[in-house]
């Protein structure tokens, strides 16, 4: 089922003008105007990013018209990554500090020096 959904969503996004990233087929890009919209998806988790919030909303509306989706608002976590955004500065940071901390604790290397 996940593979069929991936194929279906990719087909829909391609029809909307998105193109797949050549290194990762689950990352797609669309340039409907001067704005660039990125979409990353894995099974049923989707993140849409772009500077033009109206374009992002339009994409969400188009997807919602075809599929039952729930908009959870601004993403704070995605696939184990923490997302930190500063809209004023126009920056986004992705990190996995929680995973590193878990790894360090699991393997008992808290006292190691970097």
Short descriptors:
114 residues, alpha+beta, four-stranded antiparallel β-sheet, three-stranded antiparallel β-sheet, 7 strands, globular
The succession of helices and strands, N to C, reads HEEEEHEEEH
Q: Give the strand order of the largest sheet, numbering strands 1, 2, ... along the chain.
A: 1-2-3-4
Overall mean confidence score, pLDDT: 86
Q: Could you give the count of β-strands?
A: 7
Largest sheet: 4 strands, antiparallel
Strand content: 25-35%
Q: How many helices?
A: 3
The residue ranges in which pLDDT falls below 50 over 5 or more consecutive positions are none
- Tell me roughly what share of residues is in helical segments: 25-40%
What spatial form do the alpha-carbon principal axes imply? globular
Query: What is the straight-line distance between the termini?
Result: 44 Å
Question: What structural class do you assign from the helix and strand content?
Answer: alpha+beta
Instruction: Indicate the radius of gyration in whole angstroms.
Output: 17 Å
Protein architecture, described:
The structure is a single chain. The protein is an alpha+beta fold and 114 residues long. It has helices at 2-15, 53-66, 97-106, and strands at 19-20, 27-30, 37-42, 45-50, 77-78, 81-86, 91-95. It has a four-stranded antiparallel sheet with strand order 1-2-3-4, with helices on one face. The chain has a three-stranded antiparallel sheet with strand order 5-6-7. A hairpin with a 6-residue loop joins strand 2 (27-30) and strand 3. The longest helix has 14 residues, at 2-15. It is globular, with a radius of gyration of 17 Å.
